[in-house]
Structures are given as C-alpha cells and as structure tokens.
Amino acid sequence: MLGNRVTVPEISQTADQMLIVLENIADAGPASAAEVARNCDLNRTVALRLLNTLAQRNYIRRTTEGYVLGTAAIRLGHSAEEDISVLAKPMMDRLADQVSETVVLHCMEKDEAVVVEQAIGAKHLVRVQHQPGSRHPLFIGASGWSILAFQDEKTISRVLKKSLDANEARSRIAKIRVDGFAISHDELQQGVHGIAAPLKEADGSCSASIAILVPSLRADGVTKLARPLLKLAGDISDALQRR
C-alpha cells in the first residue's frame, strides 16, 4: 500500500531570480549591476541579463546612480495600495465610529511605512490626524514596528542598522511578536499614542498595518483598544487572503 505522497510545486529558477533582483532594487536602489549581482549572490552575466529584461519591461530603469524602480513596478505598487484601501476603508470607518478615535492604514514601501488611508473618529474635538502619503522609518511608531516585527531576518537587520539601539529594538520586536500588536507614544508626534497590528497575507508575510491613534489626554485607555484592533486586523487580513 502506497503512503500519502506530498507533491512540492515546482518553481521557475529564472523567475525567482528576477523577483529577487527586483526586490533588491526596491530595497537598496539605486544599485549598479555589480552591487545587484553581489547582493543577490548571482553571476554578473546572469544579473545583467535579468536587469536588461526588467528594464525592457519598464520594471526598472537605469540612471546615472544605478538601477531604480521603473514605471511598471510603481504602477503595480499603487494598484496594490488602492486595492487594500478600497477593501479596508469601510471596516476602518466602522471601527473609528465604534472607538471614537482615528484609524490609520500604513503600507510598507522600501524600509518605510507610508500612510495610505485613514478614518477619523468625529466624537472628540481633540483628535489625531495623519497626512496621507506621509512616511516614516519602520523603527519609529507603532505602525512601523508592527510591520517590521514580521519581516524576514535580512530585512530586520538592514532596517535596524539605522536605529539608535539595536538590542532594545530586538527586545521590542520579540514582545510585538508575542502580543500580536505594537504600542508607541511620542515617537512620530508629541502627545500621540498609537497601537497597531500587522495585516498578514496567506503565506504569513506582512506589508501593511492598521493602527488606532489616540491623543495623550485619552492614552490611559489605549491598551483596551487591542481587542477591537486585532479583530479589525484579522477581518482585513481574511478579506485580503480571499481576494
């Protein structure tokens, strides 16, 4: 009798290498062909062939400083942001009404968290607002930390090279992974407290977060927002995985 056989799907090595090159340019560009080959552990000739292919399809472009993302890649990124915004906004509006605080959606772009959407609770006269399109490093603010904590080790190490205290950052990441959310105060804006949770794809990857922002005068209740925040993060993540 034959036992159960698990079939491992095959992948295209060339396609995988091309995606690695594209991700490297997105993370570390502008980059020369030699830098791409070294960073991606590729033969120089192979790297050049992949770069030429990506450039011909406008996923990257060559500048005097090196290769950077092209219009095709940028367009895909904008499409993804619009997609998640349309999906998440109604749920964000409901939570903002429920907790009477501002709910913000961030997406990861290179090593930064970018404000993509927000829903503002209208009950209180004093409330927090973000500027859509504003960005900050992943190691600042609850939204950034909640994304950073669920990145691969290579990304975390690269990002933390710019932080003030890598050991303290590592401890903070470990706590976020246990709790499932991040908390911050006075990191991006004085007098603002934030609590944020990651939005995860089916494969466990994370490139976005959802946060609730509270002014310091109501900060005593920020931890009580963890339950509704985690429910919203789960609902949005489930919806993203069903797309």
TrEMBL record:
Q: Which GO terms describe its biological process?
A: negative regulation of DNA-templated transcription
Cited PANTHER family: HELIX-TURN-HELIX TRANSCRIPTIONAL REGULATOR, ICLR FAMILY, HTH-TYPE TRANSCRIPTIONAL REGULATOR RV1719
- What is one Pfam family matched by this protein? HTH_IclR
Residue spans crossing the bilayer? none
Task: Identify the SUPFAM superfamilies for this entry.
Answer: GAF domain-like, Winged helix' DNA-binding domain
What is the name of the protein in this document? DNA-binding transcriptional regulator, IclR family
Sorted alphabetically, the keyword list is: DNA-binding, Transcription, Transcription regulation
The HTH iclR-type domain sits at 12-71
Q: Which residues form the IclR-ED domain?
A: 72-242
Entry GO MF terms: DNA binding; DNA-binding transcription factor activity
Q: Does the keyword Membrane apply?
A: no
